[in-house]
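Entry 12.
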Amino acid sequence: PEDEQPDETEMPAAIRPSSGSLFISENKLPFSLMEEGSEIGTLLTTFKLNVINTDNETYEIIDGFDDELDLSKIENVFLYYELNKPNEPDIVAGSTNTFDLPEFFEGNASNVPITVDGETVAHYSIEDGKLIVTFTEKVNGFDDVKMEINLGGEFKTEIFEKENEITITIPYGEGGSYTATIRAKQEDYDAEDKKTAGDPYVLGENDEKISVDRDPEFIDWTVVVNDAMEDYANAIVFDHLGDHLEIDLTSIKVNKLIRNYKNVTIEKIEVNAEPTLADGGFEVALGDISHAYEITYTTRVIRPEGGGPHTITNSAGLKYDDGQNDILPVAKDLTWSGDLPTIAKNGELSTDPETINWEVRYNLNMEDFGEIVLTDNLDFGEIDTDTIKVYQVTEVNVAGEIVEKTELADFQTGTDDDGNITFELDAKNKAYFITFSSSVPVGLKGDVTNTITDNWSPNPNFASDSVPVDTIPTGGKIGQQKVDSDGNPYIEWTITLNSERVSVGSIRLADIFDQDLLSFDPTDHTLYELYRYANEGSEGALIENGYSVASYTDPDDSDRSGFQLHIDDVGSYMYKFVYRTYYTMAGMQEPHLANEADIFFINEDGTGIGNGETPPIIATLEGPISSIRKLGWYSTSNDETTQTIQWRFVLNESKIKLDKTKTEIVDSFTSKNYEYIEDSFIVKDLDQDKELTKGVDYSFDLTSETVDEETIQNGFKLELLKNTNATLEVTYRTTVDDDANQDHVNDVSFTWQGRTEKAKAIVE
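Predicted 3D structure (tokens):
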């Protein structure tokens, strides 16, 4: 019915809806048989192409169609082939007709029969984008046979991503053909004429591009015009170069951009256009256009006077008969090295802290100064004349880096009346590079300054540099708590002397500590050792002789005492003095202990180094720790009927020898409402893995307090009955707080030789 026909206004005018059917009625036409055998002349008399849109509406692509299709609305395609065989001549069985399928058609068929009055007169298949019809001998048994083939398949839109249009040509047997040209409708596109700049670069030895972030020589540019693909008459691309840019006309390339319906460029066609210089830039005449165009070119970047950071700009656009499209200018931030100074000086410490390496750069701009004398002044130390090297510089890059230089092997320096080194140079458009080293005197902390001056008149040029140095030898000190084999705690101290390996005559060290807290016997040689180190990372050599250790009292303060270490013939070595101090009873009770050492470094002539201002080194260390830790967890009673708490604490993991008369452990049931369970207390020697005996090795007593006239347990007290340096484990069980139902908090304090350590456990 007519009211069911699709709305023809929704499709291009050259597409008309099919009338009632996708296929036409019988239409016999004469044809000529091309040949007998495998492939014969085409028998095709009629071809039809129909597309199905997303609303399942059918449209016929008629012969002569030349227009766009909206591919977003196309899903399927149907093809109709009608072949006619006249009475004569006969067709040899196995002969074929082959037809190229449209590129966008995707379907399958294999050996499908074509029947007439129940007889199979042919088969058809789809192979490699072709429709192949193979005839049987029965096709000759009919007069004027009409054979119909209906193919359905998917419309492959991706074909149009590589091609802009597809033309279908299907020849007919008696002459003429079906022809249709289909183009994809362009998708919406936000067009923008624009200009972009590449990374600045220089050219390498093989003309390869090397990106740089300063001192560029070239930039590549890209301009896209008519991005919207409008129709313009007499179009001309113009480009206005900004300051510091120089065009290379031979680098200009013009390409016409061929885009698919998704606006993706699928081909660039180079256009033979002649650019011309115009208005500080160039122009390229394109003529009448309807495509987008891309213009690429290279500019040389000219260093601005004085160098430094600069922003360059570049603009472009498209002009045509009816107007002009301007492109926003592109700004590019570039940086150049500044102007090279006439004279430059820099120095740095070598790996040897007593040596400074110096460099001088003179006249790298290669100006004409004529005959010049350079004078070098050093405020501390001496220049090693054997290290002086003078080079003539023949090439310098824009960054001021020396590219090529030649050593002047026979160059002779001089000295002025003040003993300064002088250099006589031919500076007529010649540049120089000078290197040398100077020594640093021992005992100097501060800057060493080196200044070089020329005698250019009327305004001499000069440059200087300062290098911070510190050749005053120093020391360091650390302490580490240890316990000897008898369980006596001590501190092992290590004093590091002359870590800079400055050449020193001798070292005198006074080590001060509180004699009431720490003890040290200088006559007991088993308490100390001296090691000497030649290089960083080397093993220390034990020194047997050449040093002495004696008691010392500060002559200005009799309360400051300790010992004195004196090392002879020190040289350029690092030393480590390792010694131990034992705790006194009072020292064991101190939370922190300090040990101070005053070091004096003495030259070979007996004078002090660095004005005797080597600061004292002070090391602090926490007092000795025996250690105690505690934890608790829920358990059940021996008869497995009642919930209890199992408590455990471990003490003296440092294995300090505990004095029975000065050791006490007090355990507090801090959170209340729970009690000790009788006969659950066990003390164990973990070193020997044996249980200790109550009344022989230790005593155990419950403690209590009165609350609201009621006596309640609040913990217990444990005391040792024998001296020991063993690690001890104490375990016991308590009831559970069923009244207040609070967390169970238990604190324990461990007092030994007057020092107290604490631990806590909580069972939630």
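Annotation: The domain at 475-622 is CATH 2.60.40.740 (Immunoglobulin-like). Residues 109 and 126 are 5 Å apart (CA to CA).
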